[in-house]
Write a structure and sequence with these properties.
Blueprint lengths: L6 E5 L7 H11 L3 E6 L2 H14 L4 E5 L5 H14 L3 E6 L14 H29 L2 E6 L2 H5 L7 H21 L4 E8 L13 H9 L9 H12 L10 E4 L7
Parallel strand pairs: 1-2, 1-4, 2-3, 4-5, 5-6, 6-7
InterPro entries: KR_dom (IPR057326), NAD(P)-bd_dom_sf (IPR036291), SDR_fam (IPR002347)
Organism: Pseudonocardia halophobica
Keywords: Oxidoreductase
Length: 253
């Protein structure tokens, strides 16, 4: 089979320096048609145009609020009508929060879970049945090193808890969908140079953070995107229910 027959959906993929955008490009370079879903419709369409201009694939840019079932349904319906069948879903859309637990309120807690957990549910629940029916699919969750080491990097307890929930979500889903040819894995990035972490990567703070990373540098979005693309290959069908760390050795466990 060829991935050119399928579309890979990447949520939250319009940020110029984000992991999602780099992943969309990497998947397109590997031959996938790509759907960029993002809250910012103009940025999603611009990203899709950029991808189509750089790679000989179809690319679609769609407005989508992953926390809203109606918005997700509209985006999926558009893809179903216009794009090749979905063969991969990358649950990249996410938000962080540094709020300490003793200060966090219920609204903030729910906001973090709405995007990171419910958002992943909304999009995966819509697309998993089609992949299972076709007998091929790849689902990748963007978790975080914070879920494994218990925060202590950027996100607070709400963020760590939500990213840990994704790990359990992925493992259980891997068991259920495996017999249908669908694999489900998680990637747990550490310190990656994106707009979210960029402000912290300056001066003494940067030196302190990098001192704990054996490879001696912060991660790049390509480091994560390349691994996600590997997990989405048809040849990676015997890898499922796994969590892959991309942290330069900062959390070896």
């Amino acid at each position: 089979m060829s991935v050119s027959e399928y579309t890979a959906v990447v949520t939250g993929a319009a940020s110029k320096r984000g992991i999602g955008r780099a992943t969309a490009h990497a998947l397109a370079a590997a031959g996938w048609n790509v759907a960029v879903l993002d809250l910012d419709e103009a940025a999603a369409k611009a990203t899709a145009d950029e991808i189509a201009g750089a790679h000989p694939v179809q690319a679609f840019g769609l407005a989508c609020d992953v926390t809203d079932e109606t918005s997700v349904a509209t985006a999926v319906d558009t893809l179903t009508a216009d794009a090749p069948p979905v063969g991969a879903v990358v649950n990249n859309a996410g938000i962080t929060s540094p709020t300490r637990f003793l200060d966090v309120d219920g609204a903030e807690w729910d906001r973090i879970f709405a995007v990171n957990v419910r958002g992943a549910y909304n999009i995966t629940r819509r697309l998993a049945p089609g992949m299972a029916e076709r007998g091929f699919g790849r689902v990748v969750f963007l978790s975080s090193v914070s879920a494994e080491r218990g925060g202590g990097v950027f996100g607070g307890v709400a963020y760590s808890a939500a990213k840990a929930a994704q790990l359990g979500f992925a493992r259980a889903l891997a068991r259920e969908l495996g017999p249908h040819g669908v694999t489900v894995n998680s990637v747990a990035p550490g310190l990656i140079d994106t707009d979210i972490t960029g402000g912290a990567l300056e001066g003494e703070r940067k030196e302190a953070l990098l001192s704990g990373i054996p490879v001696g540098r912060n991660g790049r979005v390509a480091d994560v995107a390349d691994l996600i693309t590997y997990l989405c290959r048809p040849e990676s069908g015997y890898i499922t229910g796994a969590t892959y760390d991309v942290n330069g050795g900062s959390h070896i466990h």
